[in-house]
Amino acid sequence: MILPVFGANARETFTLGDAFGVGNGNHAVAMAKTQEVGVTNGGNETFSQSLAISTSVVGANASNAELVADTAQALFTQAYNRNQATSGVNLDEEAANLLKFQQAYQAASQIISTANTIFDTILAAVR
């Protein structure tokens, strides 16, 4: 197509081809061929193959990270429980000790009371 340019100093003419005209699908064909031809990874993989490989690698890494996190949590829980078993306060054991010491105090109190009664009786007998 030849387009004349109008103006006093314009003597040039320009030719425009129909490279982007209606019905020219060269670029669409080239884009569609990327699904069949190796484009990524040095021309060895198509976009679909590259996406599938990338997805599986990311999924495997995520699964591995989840397993590592679960294992670390289990090891932490085990170490925490072991620490609590040796240095923690067991409320049942403390309650049993409290009852034992309370009974020992009451027994000692009875002994002192009995000794006081005997001492008073001896003093009354001597007077």
UniProtKB/TrEMBL annotation:
Concerning SUPFAM superfamilies, the annotation shows: Phase 1 flagellin
Q: Which domain of life is it from?
A: Bacteria
In terms of InterPro entries, this protein maps to: Flg_bb/hook_C_dom (IPR010930), FlgK (IPR002371)
Q: Which residues form the Flagellar basal-body/hook protein C-terminal domain?
A: 86-123
Q: Report the sequence similarity comment from the record.
A: Belongs to the flagella basal body rod proteins family.
- What is the name listed in the Swiss-Prot or TrEMBL entry for this protein? Flagellar basal-body/hook protein C-terminal domain-containing protein
Q: Which organism is it from?
A: Colwellia maritima
